[in-house]
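Protein chain data
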Amino acid sequence: MWDPTTYLRYGDERARPFHDLLARVPTTRPRAVVDLGCGPGTQTTILAERWPGSRVTGIDAAPEMIDRAASLDSPVEFAVADVRHWRPSRDQDVVISNSLLQWVPEHRDLLTRWTRELPAGAVLAVQVPGNFDAPSHRALRTVANRPAWRTVLGPLLRAAPVDDAVGYARLLAAEGCAVDAWETSYVHLLPAPADADHPVLSWMEGTALRPVRAALDPTGWADFRRELSERLAEAYPVEQGQVCFPFRRVFFVARTAARVEENL
């Protein structure tokens, strides 16, 4: 189960890649805009502000996230849906997907299908985390590989669920798209109060640790969490009351058929 409150603990840090991605979307007057994996909707409302004359939709597979999004004062339409079954409408000029596709093993096939189904000149803008070789995720896989948890957690954690920017550029260029792809490493300075959990553990509880927690019973989760916390404290030491948390992200913006429509 997704917890919107836990996810939003570091809302500003999680929002920054969304803004950087959106800055590279060249479309000025799209007919329809969709945010795939919209989460609690706080970033999706920005799309309605940028394109007030457009039909903006946010979809997410987690009912908890859509319940939170639907409570916002926004013209955005929010709906529970599985991105694997989503199909673009004929006027779908902009597709945004921010920190979603790393959860979808078959997302490369989805990207290919979407570019073929979108209208000419449509924009597909995607960001995925590229930090799966970071100390945080290496520690996660190490603990998950312990005998106590290996059988249950082994199938849930993939070492490389996403490509680098070059891989996505090649994939989409082969479909005839004009592609802008890049990578950025953010250095988040996370406050580390002495009476609180390690901040990287708190960060991971909002995303990467969600399937782990769902798979373990309360005792197993407490033991797993304690061991992981110890490893994270070694990998990310507290200095002057904060932790430096580098986070690599992969971006790509593809325009279908490499053709610019005058009405966009």
